[in-house]
Amino acid sequence: MSTELRAAPRHPAELETALWEAVFAGDEYTATTLVQRALDDGVDPESVLLDVIAPVQFKVGEEWAANRMTVAQEHAATAINDRAVAALSLHPAARTTAGRGRITVACVDGEWHALPARLLAEVLRLRGWHVDYLGAQVPVPHLIAHLHRTGPELVALSSSLATRLPTAHATITACQAVGVPVVVGGAAFGPGGRYAELLGADAWAADARSAADRIQRAPLDRPEPGHQPIDDLPHLDDQEYTMVTRTRTSLVRAVMNGLDQSFPAMRQYSDLQRERTAEDVAHIVDFLATALYLDDADLFTGFIAWTAGILTARGVPAHSLPPALGLLAGELKDFPRATRLLRLGSARLAAPSAPSVSARNHP
After folding, report:
1. What average pLDDT does the chain have?
2. Rg of the chain's alpha carbons, rounded to an integer?
């Protein structure tokens, strides 16, 4: 059932409100029609993408994090926003001539949040670039084969999931090894893009507009071959990241078994509750491994606080987190960097300030 569609607003803030109402209602017809009518009325297509659709999608993430949208509603809303982008790309107002050169836009393998990359691809097209948009979860060998075949000026790589940063690092290095510079963006690369430089990216941008501006401002230098990931992260010599990654399944199993013994409430959990708890423990292990890879404690402690906030927003007591961290520390007692991170995570939970829930940290 469509929401009532009045004359399409022209101001981006009003259009954003109207689009949000349609997206929240699951009304694809109204959402796409709003976009088309705005373009008919002369609203700039790039503004519709970045000042209307992008903030609506960010609000979708916030509403999910605050437990005001279910996972199904979040997926449906994202799909409608994607359809709104498609409607814009087909509108006569968005037709441009590609005369600036060729750019590949892709998501890191394992990254399924494709809309930020899609927004960038459309902005670059509007600005006259020939864009190869490869979408979500692009395996490194396939990306490199594409670069060999098409010879783009650069790769724009997107990731929202911090746990994909080790894969992002391998992808950046592989692209540079064939002489193609890499611009990265997305929440995975941290506040201010702190992990972009660490992982050797040629440039970082906070959002699609600044990425397009950076690409347009000056060409990136062709990278020198022969660079290896270990060159950026010498701490990986201690093998802690490798060992935690290799033993992920056994670590989750050990923590679940330990919680059965030390956390009596677990014995009353349903099969579904146990499955969800195992997923939470697996996420903790994944973020621990990523923090070890980057040698960055803030990544892990921030995730622990985020998880506590998410559980609290869903009415689930977060008091199972400290025992889980303690059990992990026992399993990893011979790994000093890992045990330090786990102690810091426990300390973060014990801090008096309430954990914050933000879509920016969506794992």
Report:
1. 90
2. 22
